[in-house]
Amino acid sequence: MKKNTFYIIGIIFLIISFFIDGKVSLFFSSIRNETFNSISFFISYINTISLFVITTLILYLIKKRKEIILMWAAFFISGVASLVIKLLTERTRPFVEFDAIHGINFDFAIWNSSFPSWHAAALFVVYPFLNKKIRYYWIAFALIVIVNRVYTGFHYLSDVVAGVLLGHAIVWLVIYLNKRFKILRI
Length: 186
Prior knowledge:
Blueprint: H1 3-30, H2 34-44, H3 48-61, H4 65-89, H5 94-97, H6 118-123, H7 132-151, H8 157-181
Helix pairs in contact: 1-8, 3-4, 4-8
């Protein structure tokens, strides 16, 4: 899919998701059960930074060392951009408005807002640096983590959609700027 088509579809989906955020959050709240909660509990403790370290090691071993720098640059830029947007929007997290899963301590997340999801942004800055076969597994994994963020009440649907768009845009901007200004020769 061409990038322009991806962004057009993504922005349309983002606009639609703002209208259905509450319904989606209530739906996930209504289907919560012990089995889903146990799976969700496990997924919630997958650390994004640990995934980046593992991905860095893999890229290092397959001799894609310059890509590591670009990936980490996109990772940090997406974090800063996400934080700035969070501070500007101050959107309350769904678990504050709706019933959260029992057994997960949400206290640490109360200080910040939910829009956009930095987890979603961070997961989507990795895939351009992966082998094409592995990309599909990574995207499937990222989607599982993203859906889990909505299930647990950390984010609304629009938060994760915005995060995906943000991460995707930042990584391609970093790659473009690197090619345009020949910062790193890849």
